[in-house]
Amino acid sequence: MSKNIKLIHPRNQITEVISRIYKRGMTTTSGGNISIIDDNGDIWVTPSAIDKGSLRASDIICVKKDGTIIGKHKPSSEFPFHKAIYEARPDIRSVIHAHPPALVSFSIVRQIPNTNVISQAKHICGPIGYAKYRLPGSEDLGDVIADEFKKGYKAIIMENHGTVLGGSDLTDAYERFEALEFCARTILYGTQIGTPNYLTDEQIEAFESQAKGVLPEMESVEYSSEELEKRLEICNIVKRSCQQGLMISSYGTVSMRLKEGDFLITPTDINRWDIDLDDIVQIKNGQREAGKTPSRAAWIHQEIYNRNPDVNSIIMTQSPYLMAFGITGKHLNVRTIPESWIFLQDINLAEYGTHFRTHNNSEIVDNCSTALIIKNDSVIITGDKLLQTFDYLEVAEFSAKSIVLGHGLGEMVPINDEQVEDLRQKFLT
């Protein structure tokens, strides 16, 4: 989907995003609905009782400002609360409602996830509202949800129902939806292995403050054939990471070394699902490609490349099972299966704040390990080829998932020291 969504018809926007939600397992065939209100006041909305896994643009319904319905299906049964939200909040131009499993878990125990579990979610999601249970599809449900939106919320937990989120456009709403479900999943997985720790508002503000400032612009830029190939490789890995649930719209940085300390890196403030070749930022001699803003983590990538000549690609992201260890501070023992240990060896935990510019960050950049978790922030994976680095990320997330899922079965029995030494002799010497 193009970054300039104003140039895409609401029908196509809706089908693209509902497809993402369905394929990521965040709604069912019959569940969930999306709408957009256009400049004419007409509301475009998903249809009722039509397979969410195969929606086409022609299936999307238009409810005109005067109430006339245009389309071959009935509008979603939840259309009343979409309409109520738009009437209550003129700044809201798109609404997403779905039943993602983790947020439903919070809704059925009648709790709100604490988004201070990771650095940026508080600013993306904002404060979270809570709507009492009402009959689905009823005007009464629309009233209680609209009342919550009138309080200024853009994200609402619906009691025994799911969640509803609004945004200035569909991309904004989806980023909020994805970030909130990520927080919920990470908290749930974290509680399986320990006690989640949360950042204070002061810690989050300190992160936001230190992350500001960009590199100076270079006067001219050249694009070699090799660089163009690497741009495509970065875009493909970013989109694959999003599809695999290893990266979310609002967070994730990928870079590749060009030569010496020069590299390509993903930008900041661009939805990861929509990233394109011309979004990638060239960094050369400590300067950035003109007119582009690199990831706020660009300085960490630069330091890793400068101090680790064998590292040629870096992925810095948040994946839910790895971050379960990041928010609890529990050690992730990757001696689960031979492949995990061979690829990753040991995964260390760095304290929150060690990734700040002003901190002595040698723990992160010196003798850079294949995988490192920064508490309540991210995981950093390094490697030679980018596909190899992505494979390491997948292996790390699978290892973390196996441990979280196995925790309820009994105590983990890792590969022993003798077995590890055999692996070392065969594969690493």
From TrEMBL:
Pfam families: Aldolase_II. GO terms for biological process: pentose catabolic process. Residues 12-188, 232-404 form the Class II aldolase/adducin N-terminal domain. Keywords: Lyase, Metal-binding. One of its GO terms (cellular component) is cytosol. InterPro entries: Aldolase_class_II_sugar_metab, Aldolase_II/adducin_N, Aldolase_II/adducin_N_sf. GO terms for molecular function: aldehyde-lyase activity; metal ion binding. This is Ribulose-5-phosphate 4-epimerase and related epimerases and aldolases. It comes from Jejuia pallidilutea.
